[in-house]
Amino acid sequence: MADRRNATMRDMGVAVAVLVVALLLVVGAMGGWSFQPGGPAEGETLTADVTDGFSRAGATLEFATVVPKGLPSNWIGNSFSINNPATGAQGAPLARGGWVLPDGRFITLVESPAAGPVVVAQEIGQGLSGSGQVQASGLKWDVYPGQRTEVAWVTAVGGVTLMITGSADITAFQTLAAAVVKQ
Questions:
Q1: Alpha carbon 2 to chain centroid, angstroms
Q2: What is the CATH architecture assignment of 50-181?
Q3: What is the pTM of this model?
Q4: What is the pLDDT of residues 70-123, one digit of tens each?
């Protein structure tokens, strides 16, 4: 009886091992994972139509979104999302679009009808205090520490809070500020 029990356990272990190997082969053949010890390979950046996203978000979110105008053609729009409390999302309504810059850094524009401190708390964290102000495109922008080594600029135009954040340099921040103030 003990030999039969040991054989059954051994057979079950072999069957599980065969299934695991078969599963790994199928997942590997279908490209279900990748392994690159040196980090990700350079490739195409995912793209999104950020301008169209901001154009259409206003109707969905029921506030007048600002569509950036005149951005450099080498900025690649790669993300756009909305936070819509009408569909059950938590927090203030907002539209968020991002671009990858030629140097690989990124910049994001967030727009909301909520007050600046609400947007800052929702996007980069509670309890943050501004660290000063900058002047860009004729407006004063409050400066906040962002996530990681990022920074965030926040201002209000016509009842809409605008927040620019990302790892981009100050020139890119000024370019995006000019693109949203040109309206």
A1: 59
A2: 2-Layer Sandwich (3.30)
A3: 0.74
A4: 999 999 999 999 988 888 788 899 999 999 999 999 999 999 999 999 999 898
